[in-house]
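Reading is simple: the token line describes the chain's fold. The lines below illustrate.

. . .
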Amino acid sequence: MRKRNSLRSAAVLAVLLVSGAAAAQTVIQADGWVKPDGSLAREAVYVTVRDGQVAEVSGTAPQGAAVQRFEGGILAPGMIDLSGGLAALGDRSEDANAMEPAARAADALDRYQDYAHRLAHAGVTAFAICPDDTTLIGGRLAAVHSVGPDGRPALLGAGPLHVSLSASVYRVDREPTSRTGALGLLRRTLRAATAGDQPEPLRAFAAGELAGLVTAPTAADVLATLRLADQMNLEVSLRHTVDGRDVAGLPGLRDMRVVVGPLSNYASDRDRHSAGALQRAGVRIALVGGYPNAGPDALRLSAAMAVRGGLGLDAARRAVSLVPAEVLGVADRLGAIEVGRQADLVVFSGDPLDLRSRVLAVYSAGRRLEEQAHD
């Protein structure tokens, strides 16, 4: 009798284990999908999600699996917004000092507000918190998951070091007081960092071991950044919009990542054409949306405006997913529908670049958004 009970217990345990395994697996089917290169494939796709990651991408359904079907739907990777101020509590920089390389934008994360949750419902499953442009060196960006396991934003990790050549850096009561002074102070600081006389993030940046994101508002700022990066072997991405057509042919810009936007219906012709001109010069484009100062769909609107200004369709889809993930240093986990990446997925009723397309479903680390605990 004891042996029979033991066998029965073992059988029950086996059923529980199988049920647990089944519960951890989701199969999503759509009639089209956005490939890692940004192209839109109008063909049936079955994505198997297991333990929060993409386990399989196939044109046929796994045998015996329950499938969540979206007839006419387009499956896309979760979008990523680099706007900078999302879910931030208060100021994101200490503007009394021009240098705050050890600061962490993650410290400004406010997990107890609804901005990020609204953003996730619009298909943006990750975003950046970026230091303000009031400091020359403002510390590291933070990569944030819009909806974590408890239904609130969750940190993914620290991103690149932020450097700003914006006029907001100039002050009358401290250095730098001018653009010339800002560039001189930046060069001196980086030289000191190569000698070990600076905080660790700055030393890593000066050694080329940590990437930087440089706000370069004008064509002259872009040129100065490229020269400095070449002289000191720095790994940088740029944030630049206005003079994109003028700087597109500059040596050293090819294959670099440039963050453009936000672009709205009111964007100038010059701004809208910047992304396309840069892309044609071999630049990898990332777009920003400007939420919460604009609506939750602002990132898709930026992409649509950039396409209207000449940005290629495939590049525009990458510009709201894979390239922002590269800028933040999380492209091994986010930004594309590939085996092994986190299953941040969005089902649209059509092409994500078509503003008439609706969000049908959002999956955050494999769990459908409505299933997330959120008060």
